[in-house]
Amino acid sequence: MNALSPAMDVFSPSGPAPVLCDTTLRDGEQTAGVVFDLAERCAIASALDAAGVAEIELGVAAMGAAEIGAIRQIARGLVAASPLVWARARAEDIAAAHQTGVRRVHVAVPLSPCHLAGKLRVDADWARTQVRQLVSLATGMGLAVSVGAEDGSRTDPAFVAEIATIAAEAGAIRFRLADTLGVLDPFAAHDLVRRLVATQPLPIEFHAHNDLGLATANTLAAARAGASHLSVTVGGLGERAGNAALEEVAAVLAAQGRPTGVGLDRLVPLAEMVARAAGRPVPAAKPIVGPAVFSHESGIHVDGLLKDRTTYESAGLRPEVFGRAHRLVLGKHSGLAGVVHALREAGLRHDDAFARALLPMVRAEAERLKRALEPADLIRLARGLCPGAQGVAQS
């Protein structure tokens, strides 16, 4: 590309959009110390539904009668999204799922040697038998069944593929590969999913954890490898370091030209709702939904944005797409263009000479306060430098 050619984004479309399956109400609520009451669960499910999320995992029916009743109530409130219930590889879990009235159950089957031998004290033949029997049991109850490879990323890929084949033969509709401990990197995730997609008749869903900070990257790699369904949570909430974040996955896929049907302008209020219910405020720098992610202070960046937004704005990350806007703030790293802009916005004198004289004061005040300056701070500094600055706007 010629140095003076228009800037190009690196996003590139690759195949149809995957379907997002949100598990905020199941895996998200498994976050240590997080509890959603029934009203919050209903509100979150309705917000996910209204945002265009295709599938919502509502909970674990095996927790008892109260949970079964709660799942029933949440499911009744859904308009477009398909609900499902999570179950362990136990017949009683499937029976409990059936009592909810939800017509889809996901059965998670431990597959890694440490899970089979260490946790359950069983062998590989147990997993083979359970998948055959439980899928048949569930389909006999009229349930659609997906099967999940718990800790599949630490399991012999040949055994994972074998279990997927057994699940398909027994009547399952989908196979979920879980990176339960978040040990994969994007290259390994891509290779593992590509192998499954190439050899299995079932659609492949990918469920990532964020222990190494790679859940979103691994999920997108899985999508590039052919995973048709992606498991996510709002804000990346979930066990330990969390899961792949709904807002990040949806935003990237949309930027690639593979929109998932999720309304990007719904993501910020959705994240804020879940954060309030979880008692975990959205971090300022959280991609897409963080309150500070479209804020700019650095003189170089602010100068570029004011001249041409594309200098520091990707086509796939325009803030308006998410119902947001750029926010230019004054601080230690501000430059002349930022001070001129702030003075103009405040209705103050804003010629270059005045702004240049004010700039060191702005930086010093930001250092003293250890924060960005508010409009009142700027007005105070401007009046201190020139008592008549207010209302003496100049071009």
Summarize the structure.
The protein has 395 residues and is α/β, with parallel strands linked by helices. Helix content is 44%, strand content 13%.
Helix content: 40-55%
The ordered string of helix (H) and strand (E) elements is EHHEHEHEHHEHEHEHEHHEHEHHH
What is the CATH-assigned architecture of the largest domain?
Answer: Alpha-Beta Barrel
Question: Which overall shape is indicated by the principal axes computed on the Cα atoms?
Answer: elongated
* Extended strand count: 10
- Helices, by number, come to 15
The biggest beta sheet is recorded as: 8 strands, parallel, barrel
- Name the CATH superfamily assignment of the largest domain: Aldolase class I
Order of strands in the sheet with the most strands?
1-2-3-4-5-6-7-8
Any idea of the CATH class of the largest domain? Alpha Beta
Overall average residue pLDDT: 93
Number of domains: 2
Distance between the termini: 38 Å
The chain-level structural class is alpha/beta
Strand content: 5-15%
What value does the Rg take, in angstroms?
Answer: 26 Å
EC number: 2.3.3.14
Pfam families: HCS_D2, HMGL-like
Family: Belongs to the alpha-IPM synthase/homocitrate synthase family.
Protein name: Homocitrate synthase
What does this structure look like?
With 395 residues, the chain is an alpha/beta fold. The protein has 2 domains: 19-278, Aldolase class I (TIM Barrel); 295-385, no CATH class. Helices cover 44% and strands 13% of the residues. It contains 15 helices and 10 strands. It has helices spanning 24-28, 38-51, 65-76, 91-99, 113-120, 124-140, 157-170, 186-199, 215-225, 246-255, 267-278, 299-307, 336-345, 352-369, 375-385, and strands at 19-22, 55-60, 82-88, 104-110, 144-150, 174-179, 204-208, 229-232, 295-296, 327-328. The chain has an 8-stranded parallel beta barrel with strand order 1-2-3-4-5-6-7-8, surrounded by 8 helices. The chain has a two-stranded parallel sheet with strand order 9-10. Strand 7, helix 9 (215-225) and strand 8 (229-232) form a beta-alpha-beta unit. Helix 6 (124-140) runs parallel beside helix 7 and helix 14 (352-369) packs across helix 15 (375-385). The radius of gyration is 26 Å and the shape is elongated.
